[in-house]
Amino acid sequence: MKTEDIKGRGKGQGSRRRHRRCLHQYDHLETKKQVFGGADGSDPMWMRIDLFYCQRCLRIKERVLKSHSKEQPTWY
Ligand SMILES: [Zn+2]
Predict the structure, then answer these.
(1) pLDDT surpassing 60 at residue 3
(2) Which of 8, 46, 60, 70 pairs with 21 at a CA distance of 20 to 30 A?
(3) What are φ and ψ of residue 9, in 5° steps?
């Protein structure tokens, strides 16, 4: 536990020191869509994951949309 704490803190400091301000400019990378369940008569789970990456620092951002409904959600 203790070692983990120290390690975690050190890592945080390191990245803060190296941190450069980035005005993230996200670009769409890919969209994954999945439907779970629904075969047994219950409402299926609709899931959509959009992945974006920053053109400047290549940081990946993820947006997850999910919903339980009989009908296909408008965002799907
Ligand atoms: Zn960025």
Answers:
(1) no
(2) 8
(3) -65, -40
Residues at Cβ < 5 Å from ligand 1 ion: 22, 24, 54, 56-57, 59
If you measure from the C-alpha of residue 29 to the centroid of ligand 1, how many angstroms do you get, rounded to a whole number?
A: 14
Query: Distance from the CA of 20 to the center of ligand 1, in angstroms?
Result: 9
Per-residue pLDDT reduced to its tens digit, 12-44? 454 555 666 899 999 999 999 999 998 888 899
Residue 58 domain boundaries: 22-69
Any domain includes 15: no
Check residue 19 and give its pLDDT: 62
Q: What tokens does 46 get?
A: 């609709």
Between CA 37 and CA 8 the distance in angstroms is 39
